[in-house]
Amino acid sequence: MPSKTAVHTIAGAALASLTLSGCAGDGTAARLPPANFVAHQEGPGEDYIIGPMDELTVFVWRNPELGSKVQVRPDGRITTPLITDMPAVGKTPSMLAQDIQLQLSQYIQDPLVSVIVTRFAGTFSEQIRIVGATGKPASLPYRANMTILDAMIAVGGLSEYASGNRAKLIRYDKASGHQKEFALRLGDLLKKGDSKANVMLMPGDVIIIPESMF
């Protein structure tokens, strides 16, 4: 478990970054609508964007020797048979498959390529970041229908000194081009089992959990 000093340092850095990027709004925090603990109908999220360190399987129909299992390098590129340093980060699997097809068409006729993401990391803009008074501050890959409860389980819940009902969620609003702040009631959710305090997450959300003043 991180020390109180480490938690202060991580949370302080996150707060400073968000302030510089225009997080400040009207000084009030809105509330998000409650989420179901289990979605009534599971559905796909937005098209997945490949990120550094994702693991991919590239399959070339009728040419298995041209396919491979690869990990996206930190520089955002992959190398497969006949293709060197293909940019992968920022693309969906279907977009990357089309780019690989185009390159392979120089060597074989009408290649059919599919790309499957077998291990997810995601781009930083897609990850859920949780900082402050929690068991283990972390960046988590976003997945469809992810809730704040899922995220808190992944980071080990609240720390001993957390003030869960003063937690905030920072979300970038694509429509307005600004970041918005929402109030969270993590104490009610995790300690009292209040299902109304569970909310849906979106790619890029940042959760900040302060320590208690007492």
Structural notes for this entry:
By secondary structure, the protein is α+β, with helices and mostly antiparallel strands. 20% of the residues lie in helices and 24% in strands. It is built from four helices and eleven strands. It has helices spanning 4-20, 93-104, 148-154, 186-192; strands spanning 30-31, 55-60, 68-71, 77-80, 83-87, 113-119, 128-132, 138-140, 168-173, 178-183, 206-209. The strands form three sheets. It has a six-stranded mixed β-sheet with strand order 1-10-9-11-7-8, sandwiched between helices. It has a three-stranded antiparallel β-sheet with strand order 3-2-6, with helices on one face. Strand 9 (168-173) and strand 10 form a beta hairpin. The protein is elongated and about 70 Å long.
Task: Provide tags for this entry.
single chain; 214 residues; alpha+beta; 6-stranded mixed sheet; 3-stranded antiparallel sheet; disordered N terminus
Brief digest:
The protein is α+β, with helices and mostly antiparallel strands and about 210 residues long. The chain has helices at about 5-20, 95-105, 150-155, 185-190; strands at about 30, 55-60, 70, 75-80, 85, 115-120, 130, 140, 170-175, 180-185, 205-210.
